[in-house]
Amino acid sequence: MRQRRSLQTVKTATKVHIKRLRYIPGRTYATLSLLTYSSDLQARAFLPLRHLAFTCVFCYIATQIDVIADTIAGGDRHAVSLRDIWYGARSGYSTGVGRGYVGGIWCLGHEAGHEALSPYPWVNAVIGIAPHLCPNAILRLARDPSYPPFLWLSLYLIHNRKGNPRYAPWTSHFKPSSLLFKPEQRRSIVISNIAIGVMITLLAIYTYKTSWSSVWCYYFLPWLVAHNWIVMFTYLQHSDPTIPYYRKDQWTFARGALATVDDLCLAGSDVFSSTTTDHVAHHFFATVPFYNLPQVTEAIRPVLGEYYNYDSTPVLYALWRSFTQCTFVEDEGTILFFKNQYGDAVIELST
């Protein structure tokens, strides 16, 4: 059952401001700040190695799928059982590596982008490879870009296709002098472009040495699964019929930070789970590592009170609800809630 506040009428978080979080009962803001780097360096260094090892083990097992399937099928290459075993094993590999990738490598890169893995910027840069654009305009309609369609994502990165209209056409994420970046970030963009070029070169060499089908099975299928997980949990966090969008002077950082949902249905103990179940805390304290976010959530919930959003709805139902109830927002107004295709909203703004 969904564990949320009443959906009939709701007030937006007009009384919750950043200053209130500096005086949290039983745990001061300074104490919360100490949680940023409260674990030892060895533990933080272990995290990337653990998830990299996980991926390598799965990749090695995947190289043995043909041999194992052939052995089980007794050498009959045309047996139905062989085909079933092969597809089942490939699906398991893609799901395992994709889920492990998004639960490990991608989310660790995200953490590094927020400088949450180390007090040393160069360590975060090495782990994250590229600078990460922090969500500092969350749920602000004039500045917060929504997701471009999957096949258009590359065009969005290359020339701002369907991106923020504040930037001119052909504003590129790959151009160091782009208005998207500060002058001091340009060197990092160059390094990021080099890293992307190296990865593309390695994939091209591997394709030349093996085959396109090999690259598809070992790399692109897990990549698609990872993309699916990333879009799914970020979509559930930020597209909900009970959270508002803001325009103009109605937006504040505190309001934007509160406009997200902690998805308890994805609870677990890894980096992927912590960034979904404690996302409200992550919005307010982006530099706190994921393993300390549960403590931050526990500390800020009494302060946020009714303005803290969480959801224990099963994932598939939550997706269906967001797909059907979060169709559009009106062109007019300063505090808006999603409406469905018939123009009906779940939330009515109280005054």
From TrEMBL:
List keywords of the entry alphabetically: Membrane, Transmembrane, Transmembrane helix
TM spans (from-to) = 189-208, 220-238
Descriptive protein name? Fatty acid desaturase
**Domain named Fatty acid desaturase: residues:** 153-309
This protein's species is: Lyophyllum shimeji
A biological process from GO: lipid metabolic process
* Entries under InterPro entries matching the protein: FA_desaturase_dom, Fatty_acid_desaturase
Which Pfam families does this entry report, sorted A to Z? FA_desaturase
| GO terms for MF | oxidoreductase activity
